[in-house]
Amino acid sequence: MRIDLHTHSTASDGTDTPAQLVANAAAAGLDVVALTDHDTVRGHAEAAAALPEGLTLVTGAELSCRIDGVGLHMLAYLFDPDEPELARERELVRDDRVPRARTMVRKLQELGVPVEWEQVARIAGDGSVGRPHVATALVELGVVETVSDAFTPQWLADGGRAYAEKHELDPFDAIRLVKAAGGVTVFAHPAAVKRGEVVPESSIARLAAAGLDGIEVDHMDHDEPTRARLRGLARDLGLLTTGSSDYHGRRKTVGLGEYTTDPEIYGEITRRATGAFPVPGAGGRGPA
Questions:
Q1: What are the CA-CA distances from residue 279 to residues 52, 225, 284 (Å)?
Q2: Other Cβ atoms within 10 Å of 263 Cβ, number
Q3: Which of 38, 96, 150, 266 has the least CB density, counted as fewest CB within 10 Å?
Q4: Which DSSP symbol is given to 53?
Q5: What is the DSSP-derived secondary structure letter of residue 243?
Q6: How much is the pTM?
Q7: Confidence label for 127 from pLDDT (cuts 50, 70 and 90)
Q8: d(CA 37, CA 18)
Q9: Nearest to 73 by CA among 269, 244, 257, 261
Q10: For residues 26 and 4, is the Cβ–Cβ distance under 8 A?
Q11: Per-residue confidence band for 283, with pLDDT thresholds at 50, 70 and 90
Q12: Is residue 240 within 8 Å of residue 268, measured between CB atoms?
């Protein structure tokens, strides 16, 4: 089995619609794909309706969190999307995204970048606007060469010159809320130092003690020594280890299935989840 547990669609900051994403996942030879858009479950219905036969969909979301002043992303899998407290927190984060993006645009303008809000809004479309959309605008303007190049202290990285804060969950609250909704939590790309400051291992140990289920180890932002270190940390803390592409379509160079999760780990995630079940493909033909 080939299992990719971290992807994004146009419901947040990917470039594939949910229907296109599941079609591309099947074409890439995946058996299981998780749709984990930022702070939203809006793409799940379309992805499920378009799910090709032979491909299983894991519903999820990537929750924006912050601990001790450091941002982190929490992957939440197979939770009940209608659980009211978790739904309310996701809505608070989403509602804060537009003011935050407007603030980043203003800061860029003050730095002499000729970016306009209308450009960022066009790039985001119906998606949940975020830093990758602002970064794409910088690419369009020729300010940086790639989206990744915008995530530096010079521009949009945490604490960068054009960075702006938004409402974010306390990760301990995120773990509690996801578990109350029957879901499973995995700390996304915990050692992605190129994105800015990372959470120390002592804090990961505290999260593990609070019920964190796993950490994402095999990821494009982790080199081999980092992956080995994270595997050792997971072993010491009793955490599951996952691998995934963090696919964003054309917005990143990584392809679907470039990094994958061990089938046994996937089986354990599904065993722990009680809020929702993986959706088996039945050859659906939703909108492309």
A1: 11, 35, 12
A2: 13
A3: 96
A4: T
A5: E
A6: 0.89
A7: confident
A8: 10
A9: 244
A10: no
A11: low
A12: yes
Which residue carries 């309310």 as its tokens? 88
Q: What is the 3-state secondary structure (H, E, C) of 255-282?
A: CCCCCCCCHHHHHHHHHHCCCCCCEECC
Q: How far apart are the first and last CA of the chain?
A: 26
CA dist., res. 288 & res. 284, Å (int): 11
Chain Cα centroid distance, residue 121: 20
| pLDDT interval class at 288 (50, 70, 90) | very low
Select from 159, 136, 160, 158 the least CA-distant residue to 148. 136
CA dihedral 265, 270, 275, 280 (to 10 degrees): 130
What is the tens place of the pLDDT at every residue in 233-265?
A: 999 999 999 999 999 998 888 999 999 999 999
Amino acid at site 281: G
**Residues whose CB is less than 8 angstroms from the CB of residue 44 and which lie 6 or more positions away in sequence, other chains included:** 18, 35, 57, 59, 81
Report the candidate in 62, 124, 130 with the shortest Cα–Cα distance to residue 101.
Answer: 130
In angstroms, the Cα distances linking 216 to 52, 188, 261, 275 are 26, 5, 9, 21
